Amino acid sequence: MFEESSQNSKGSSAGLLRKRESAEAVSETQQPSQVPPEQDQESVRRGSRRGEDRRSPAATPRQSSTVTNHRNRQQITWQKIRTFKVECGPGKKDILNFTKQLAIMIRAGISLQDSLESIGEQIEKEKFKLIIFDLKNRIESGQSFSQALSEHSDIFSELYINMVAAAEVSGSLSKMLQKLAEYLDSEAETRSQVKGAMVYPIIIAVMAVSVTIFLLCFVLPRFTAIFAGKEHLLPGPTKALMATSAFVRGNWYFIIPVIGASFWGFWYFIGTEGGGRWWDKTKLVLPLIKTLCRSLYITRSLHTMSVLTKAGVPILNTISITAQIAGNILYKEMWLSVYEEVRQGKKIASSLSQHSLMPGNVVQMVRSGEDSGTMSDVLRDVSDYYARELRTVIKTVTSMIEPIMIVVMGVLVRLYCDEYYSADIQDVQCCYGQINSSLVL
Question: Biggest alpha carbon distance in the chain?
């Protein structure tokens, strides 16, 4: 028993020792470490930086995605701005180039569908490209080329469609397209000649107006200061010129819109039926312009009739198309009157002889062509003659307008100089009078 009690006392003492050691270990872990204050602050700063570093990866993807989306939107916007363009429908030059290419490809033995597809792929204007591919699709669906063209009558004229229809009947599409290209080329050349004849006078007129405005707004005010207080001594024209200068400088913000509205009103007026008739009549009575316009209308009408007659288009369709492309409402009404009379059985020459718009020698040559059965050849010769006359008239009109505009500009400048010379002389005389009177006194 004594041994057992000694063993129990030893075991209890060992347990107490183990409990005391574990309690000391726990107290050591819970007791704050003795660290200098500087090291403690440094550890806090490092810990805060570590916390920021731990939080930063979570915010970076959002920021980067936002920046990326903003840059993408900017790139898309700039791309739209760079690629933005206002695209109009095909013009006369586009139709001419299309006709030339189509005539060459068909003459080379390429099918019409393949030719249209090849031309459509080369065209840059999207609207015209869609039209060409629509023509191809309609032909593949069973329509003829003229029927497909008639679906786009706002692009291809009635003359174009009728000549293609006549070529389909005769089986000579390539030759007809070549004739069409020559006709369109001739019309484009005539238009460029007429526009070229009008460009120079317009430039001179703009320069004359610009010089006048410059003198009124920038030169006259400097002289006005010299004559301040002596306006009663100035001659009447000089006073009027100075008043005009003051009005222009003081009301320019009102004058510019009025001028713009006047131009717009004029174009709107001549776009109406009554205004268009008045303008077409005026063009046939104005000096210099009337000869040019008459030659232009006669050349265009007879050239169109020649091409259509040679192509085998029926004469009533020929006259109707000629009326539509005449370019002047008076000539259009003349051809429509001829159309009605020919439909009733009369001849073209007898119908034209009732109108004063067509010269007598032209009527006589048309009559000879009807009698001999060579109408197309006669019309071609007459149109060639008037085309040469048109070129001569354009040169004459241009050569006459040039000195006229130079004289007008010279007169404007001379009037300006004369008025201010007279004003200076008047001022000098007044000064001499004042000096003489002071000397007498």
Answer: 169
User: How far apart are the C-alpha atoms of 362 and 353, rounded to whole Å?
Assistant: 9
What is each CA distance from 54 to 40, 45, 160, in whole angstroms? 21, 14, 78
Radius of gyration of the chain from Cα atoms? 46
Alpha-carbon distance 299 to 191, whole Å? 12
Q: State the Cα–Cα distance between residues 348 and 301, nearest whole angstrom.
A: 13
User: Cβ(235)–Cβ(427) under 8 Å?
Assistant: no
Residue 282 vs residues 17, 167, 293, 340: alpha-carbon distances, Å:
132, 40, 11, 27
pLDDT one-digit tens code per residue, 303-328:
888 888 888 888 888 898 888 888 88
Fold of 172-441: Receptor-associated Protein (1.20.81)
Q: How many CB atoms lie within 10 A of CB 313?
A: 21
Q: For residue 68, how many other CB atoms are within 10 A of its CB?
A: 10
Give the type of residue at 41: Q
CATH superfamily label, 92-156: Type II secretion system (T2SS), domain F (1.20.81.30)
Neighbours of 347 (CB within 10 A): 15
pLDDT, average across residues 285-300: 85
**pTM of the full predicted structure?**
0.65
Q: What are the DSSP calls for 114-125, one per residue?
A: HHHHHHHHH---
DSSP for 155-223, please give it: TS-HHHHHHHHHHHHHT-HHHHHHHHHHHHHHHHHHHHHHHHHHHHHHHHHHHHHHHHHHIIIIIHHHH
